[in-house]
From TrEMBL:
The lineage of its organism: Bacteria, Bacillati, Actinomycetota, Actinomycetes, Kitasatosporales. This is ABC transporter ATP-binding protein. Coiled coil: none annotated. One of its GO terms (molecular function) is ATP binding. Gene3D superfamilies: P-loop containing nucleotide triphosphate hydrolases.
Length: 236
């Protein structure tokens, strides 16, 4: 992302949600995004994922600028090259675990790669649950299903907005360990928004946003140092 800005509204009501952010996410990196409420984290994530367009500046995915793309192209790119994980899992309750995981393939018209499906489901630890409905699973298991769904298209980038926000701390840490394994073992690139310094400490580096600006980047974060920086930037 190069010099990205994002304004909402205009005139007296205008909000500058991003004020010139430049970031490179290396392939196989695990990056956490932190900052006070309203600092622009979700806006940053949405622009980086092509869910929203920056007002100025550029977003490139694998070297390809998103700015020249039409809506249909962007939609395809999001389906095929980005996996999303949300705080609220967003699974379809009427579908089995298997059908939830393979939903992105149906949307993008991609054939099922059986070996990859088996690898993903065993890695996230839900290979025994494929016939269940989401409501029959615990929160942690549902989030694992959502992670498998995010991986099924072999995306370039996995985006996670508060992925452990709805989980107790033990289950949350299992999910974070899973992210770290995906990064280390599969070379997956992960970008995660979190308010939790412990969650951020699982990442390789933390980006701190304040008032729409990237104010600090911390490599090899430790929970304690992250918490201290958050306090400094006025975060929770
Ligand atoms: N659709 C929108 N229309 C107008 N203003 C918006 C819109 N979305 C976000 N904003 C504003 O942009 C700024 C950044 O919002 P953003 O949601 O990115 O913050 P955040 O860091 O994700 O906050 P939180 O931690 O509360 O989720 C805020 O001032 C917000 O009010
Ligand atoms: Mg947000």
């Amino acid at each position: 992302m190069r010099e990205a800005t994002k304004n909402y509204g205009s005139g007296g009501n205008a909000v500058q949600a991003l004020r010139g952010i430049s970031v490179d996410l290396a392939r196989g990196s695990f990056t956490a995004v932190m900052g006070p409420s309203g600092s622009g984290k979700s806006t940053f994530l949405h622009c980086a994922a092509g869910l929203d367009r920056p007002t100025s500046g550029q977003v490139l995915l694998g070297g390809v600028p998103l700015s020249g793309m039409r809506e249909a192209e962007l939609t395809r790119l999001r389906r095929e090259r980005i996996g999303f994980v949300f705080q609220a899992y967003n699974l379809l309750p009427a579908l089995s675990v298997r059908d939830n995981i393979t939903m992105p393939l149906r949307l993008s018209g991609t054939p099922l790669d059986r070996a990859w499906f088996d690898e993903v489901t065993s890695r996230v630890g839900i290979a025994e649950k494929l016939r269940k409905r989401p409501s029959e699973l615990s929160g942690g298991q549902q989030q694992r299903v959502a992670i498998a769904r995010a991986l099924i298209n072999r995306p370039d980038l996995v985006m996670a907005d508060e992925p452990t926000g709805a989980l107790d701390s033990h289950t949350g840490q299992e999910v974070l360990r899973l992210f770290r394994e995906l990064v280390h073992d599969l070379g997956q690139t992960v970008l995660m928004v979190t308010h939790d310094p412990v969650a951020a400490s699982y990442a390789h580096s933390v980006l701190f946003l304040a008032d729409g600006r990237l104010v600090e980047r911390m490599d090899r974060p430790e929970a304690k140092t992250v918490a201290e920086r958050m306090a400094h930037f006025g975060g929770r």
